[in-house]
Amino acid sequence: MRVILFSSQAYDRESFLGEPLPPGLELQFQPARLNLDTVALAEHHDVVCAFINDDLSAPVLEQLAAGGTRLIALRSAGYNHVDLPAAQRLGLTIVRVPAYSPHAVAEHAVALILALNRRLHRAYNRTRDGDFSLHGLTGFDLVGKTVGVVGTGQIGATFAKIMAGFGCRLLAYDPFPNPQVQALSADYVSLPELLAQAQIISLHCPLTADSKHLINARSLAQMQPGAMLINTGRGGLVETPALIEALKDGQLGYLGLDVYEEEAQLFFEDRSDLPLQDDVLARLLTFPNVIITAHQAFLTREALAAIAGTTLSNIAAWAEGQTQNRVEG
Ligand code: NAI
Scanning 77, 92, 132, 198, which has its CA 20 to 30 A from the CA of 215? Predict the structure, then answer.
């Protein structure tokens, strides 16, 4: 059975080849992103293995189905980039990796909080430049601060547990409260209440029609002046241009992003030789109180091994007619 892995990087090759391969499976690692220009590369491959910025819209799915593909094995938990009704219509099965390491993402959110608060990004550059002054580096104690967790599934709950360890007070917003988070003495409140009370807000909900632009000019105005916003969920959860205005007038005191609404055209590639064409991202990068990482929250050894292991097992199960981790339309 032929499997093509789009958007594959050196670390994907290493992690997939580090797992026992099910018999009869032939893996082709393809660095290109899947889209209408590259879809022909998938011809005669039974399985297309895709990542978060691959294009799985109806026109691409139609060409995949016409070329003989029958299974789309996502190397991600999120599936907001897949046109599920089109996949169903075309008889394409979609499987995913529902959980690989909630710790990887939650710990990255905490890394962003600590770096922003203690201004490690500025201190790193300063000392390398021979500047050992401390002005502008004042942080705050995390103990006793109120942290708002939006989305308390696997990642949000793991994040909440870590922040409870710092001695933070926890507020949570999720249509389905999680008993593990309630056990941490977190209070489930409405989103406006969370925004109004939390000094740090971290987004851990999926991107859906309901959650698109959950953070916008109005919700930013509801936050405490100088609040910190962390987004390791999906770029579309936040209306990005509104962030610029909130940063300019100080309403937003700190911003940590691992995801960006327009990341598909940029992230996972070395573009350091090229002029940055995205003016919104370029403006965000000028603020000293903003840290942007290029969708790396998942990138730990443990998470990569789990993604490879579950993906190979999803493919093997499907080949035996026992589909697991299926995404339903
Ligand atoms: P999960 O399915 O375990 O939890 C999601 C939670 O969000 C659920 O409890 C759900 O009830 C809640 N939710 C749904 N809609 C909501 C809304 N409008 N407002 C508030 N809560 C809402 O998912 P998990 O594994 O915790 O992942 C969360 C998200 O993190 C994923 O959907 C994905 O977008 C993102 N992610 C980011 C990664 C990165 O590398 N930056 C890696 C993995 C996931």
Answer: 77
